[in-house]
């Protein structure tokens, strides 16, 4: 059972950090459920998306970047409270995946509109969802879920965070939004490559069954 959990769990280095262990242990002692934490990630993503769409003011961009990171913290803690905290539920896998897809879409689509290329934001969101679909499909057919790729979730959010912080500086000297456009383009291209590499790995693994 332990091996099965590891196979379906994203490898995250910060999971072994003292702050994550301490925070998840504290949450596990409260009445907060892992599913609630998962849904909270959507709230932070919605806040970030609203800030991105409303203005390119440096404070808004920095606040949006913080919202992105808080979304990731929720994604880290929900699993730790569920597994290490012993509060796993039967509906946990649903809450583990669906809020992530919503949060990704809110942020990536917002960036597309903010930089003036709505189609690029929608493309980024579609490809991000497809990377997750390929991963989960692999698990559904009995293979370990494949979290590899140059634009897995943590890297998508890292690029987005960097783009938002860069935009906060760009806004000080120009009305342009090249930083957001570049971040959106990198995420879309990287997600396409990730979809391709994961599909190839999946096909090869299936052939070996």
Automatic annotation (TrEMBL):
Gene3D superfamilies: 1.20.120.1760. Its EC number is 2.7.8.5. It comes from Rhizobium leguminosarum. This is CDP-diacylglycerol--glycerol-3-phosphate 3-phosphatidyltransferase. The chain crosses the membrane at residues 36-53, 102-120, 181-200. One of its GO terms (molecular function) is CDP-diacylglycerol-glycerol-3-phosphate 3-phosphatidyltransferase activity. InterPro entries: CDP-OH_PTrfase_TM_dom. It comes from the Bacteria. The keyword Membrane applies. Keywords: Membrane, Transferase, Transmembrane, Transmembrane helix.
